[in-house]
Design a protein that fits this description.
- Helix content is 64%, strand content 3%.
- By secondary structure, the chain is an all-alpha fold.
- The model has no long low-confidence stretch (mean pLDDT 87).
Amino acid sequence: MNKESVSGYALIFGYLSLFMMMIGLIILLPLLVIIFYPEEITNAKYFIAPGVGSIVIGYFVHYFFLGKSQERLEKYQDALLILFIWIMAILISSIPFLLTGNYNFTQSIFETTSGYSTTGLTVVDVTTTPNIFLMYRSLLQFIGGVGLVLILTSAVSDRYGMRLYSAEGHNDKLLPNLARSARLILSIYIVYIIVGTILYKIFGMSVFDGLNHAIAAVSTGGFSTKANSIAFFDSAAIEGVTIVLMLLGNTNFVVHLFLIKGRLKNAIKHIELKFLLIISVIFIPIMVISIAGSYQGDFWEAFRIGLFQFVSGITTTGFQSVDSLSILPNITIICVIILMIIGGGIGSTAGGIKQYRIVLAIKNLYWNFRDRITHKNVIRSNYINKFGKVIEVTKQDAIDTNSHIMVYLITLVIGTVIFSAYGHSLQDSLFEFSSALGTVGLSVGIISYNSPPLMLWTTNVGMFMGRLEFYVVFVAIAKIFMDVSKRKVL
């Protein structure tokens, strides 16, 4: 007897019901905070209702798909499923904020999007926010940093799991199957967080603050439990630990695997590490010299601030070691804008255009110029060192890279113009939207609890598109329109 099969959009909704149950579990996890802060038991209701509700509804829907065989996902439906998973996760996960009555729908969606996208921009007043919500924000960044799809699909067969993980913007296939890759990535991630928390505790943070900052640093998210971020602690040791954690989060997990296995040569040869060294030599001196003028020539203080803000910007983490970025010289602010646009390592928890794409674009310029001045009969192949391997760069690779950069910059211009329309300076608008689109979280004060709804939604779109890197969103939307035109949706 043949089982009834499920395909197309029915298959997508079947998967979404499973993911809905897992999102419910994510929402319930912060309840563990009550064990250590029993006085916050009154806040449990904000998590229990949406968490349990999501699990029950997800199970009820999934029940109708039990015992049915699953067909293959159609072309581009993996992108469609990714888009639906992210939208569903943001909508459901925003409910705890909404239920408090302290945040409207727009603000709740904003904070949740900022968490999952590991941005770190916030409308929350951390000085009055309960610890359970502070941990919830950090948990969202943990999930978003590792990869929302990696977490959710680790319980799904590898038949689609790795396809979905790749569609989300990852190319770090560490091991042959998703489940093993998920365990390895989570293990690396958790070890860094535990070690970071211990070091933070040693250097003066409470365990709660240390855990939250370790999660935010490794996920390159930037959510802090303090209004002044890392500057609150005024500790060179804490800043040093944070710098290391941010750089670890900025590094592709394949490179982490090389380091763990002692394959140092492969790690060092990766083109992004070379590029990071080059821009460090260029930007850090410029930032330090410019800051020194504002600190009466105190070179050590200028170096401490410049180095931290360089790492925070290039890793797209968003922590700051000064009370306000407005005290920094304009040249430093411009440097940070450029760093946020460049972004971190490809396949890492960082955002931005990504260093690999920038390097490839620069090499494309060189290769194009070289080919124009050499004899037309000379045919050359172009190569680049990626993850310790020399790979050939095809014309399609060049086209994809240039297309991504162009779309990124066009989006950056549109967002900057919208921010400027509200009366903010061009530099401040560019800084703030660069931070959103690059999923950074540094702010010059434009985004706040009282920001206009259109500005918050513009930022929402920027964070969302920046995290999913455009392609999957565009493909999913195009797929929907094609299916609607062919009447395949229902």
